[in-house]
Write a structure and sequence with these properties.
Adenylat/UMP-CMP_kin, alpha/beta, EC 2.7.4.3, binds magnesium ion, zinc, binds BIS(adenosine)-5'-pentaphosphate
Length: about 220
């Protein structure tokens, strides 16, 4: 299964990606996670990406696409993958389509996680991420009283781009640059929308119900 998750910042792409990818036994490929790993590793890519990420702007397409091409070329992605956060605009979608076609592949499904802006702000304000295993938590919804990961005991951190004004800018960037992908993929016939409100497990259930008809 070759799957893309699309939706505004805070929709729950990363949260759902960890469960969906594990259910389907495919790698979860998150461009945001790869950029953040490069930022903490102090690489040249990380230094470049950080300047854009801190403002809530998109990292230039050329850089992002080269990184995704490398990742999709790895062995574990040959029989399927779940992309979280890529493509992020129509030019990225066009290049992904061409890249996959050159490899004799194509996308099976694009899942849109649908949630309103107020919920997004609530979710991002309380988000914490594990610095060790990458698991995503929420201070209120997961009742996190301490800063340790329940899964691996790693330290939890708050993302630099989750400040309120940066979140607002990320939402604008989503509306301007990413939302056009919804009609792009609707025209391609690969788009399915999923209501992403309510408990995490219910959203996963809805997502799996939407995916099932597309499984080979
Ligand atoms: P990226 O990391 O992709 O950020 P994003 O799209 O803004 O999305 P988020 O990760 O903020 O939200 P999410 O939908 O994953 O929500 P989550 O599951 O964490 O990108 C970051 C930056 O990298 C970009 O701004 C850009 O600079 C750069 N970048 C990345 N990809 C790029 C690309 N292709 N091109 C160019 N630049 C790129 O959930 C949020 C919170 O809500 C969590 O606390 C979670 O616990 C909670 N939650 C989730 N589901 C529920 C639920 N059902 N109920 C209650 N709480 C919930
Ligand atoms: Mg994410």
């Amino acid at each position: 299964m070759r799957l893309v998750l699309v939706g505004p910042p805070g929709a729950g792409k990363g949260t759902q990606a960890q469960y969906i990818a594990s259910n389907l036994s495919i790698p979860k490929i998150s461009t945001g996670d790869i950029f953040r790993a490069n930022v903490s590793g102090g690489t040249e890519l990380g230094k470049l990406a950080k300047t854009y990420m801190d403002r809530g702007d998109l990292v230039p397409d050329q850089v992002t696409i080269a990184m995704v091409r490398d990742r999709l070329s790895e062995d574990d992605a040959q029989d399927g993958f779940l992309l979280d956060g890529f493509p992020r605009n129509v030019p990225q979608a066009e290049i992904l389509k061409k890249m996959l076609a050159d490899w004799g592949q194509g996308l099976d499904l694009v899942l849109e996680l649908v949630v309103d802006d107020d919920e997004v702000v609530r979710r991002l304000a309380g988000r914490r991420t594990c610095s060790q295993c990458g698991r995503i938590w929420h201070v209120e919804f997961d009742d996190k009283q301490d800063d340790r990961c329940d899964a691996c005991d790693g330290t939890l951190f708050q993302r630099d781009d989750d400040k309120e004004e940066t979140v607002r800018h990320r939402l604008e960037v989503y509306q301007e640059q990413t939302a056009p992908l919804i009609s792009y993929y609707a025209d391609e016939g690969t788009l399915v929308g999923v209501d992403a409100t309510g408990p995490v497990e219910e959203v996963t259930q809805r997502a799996m119900d939407a995916i099932r008809p597309f499984l080979g």
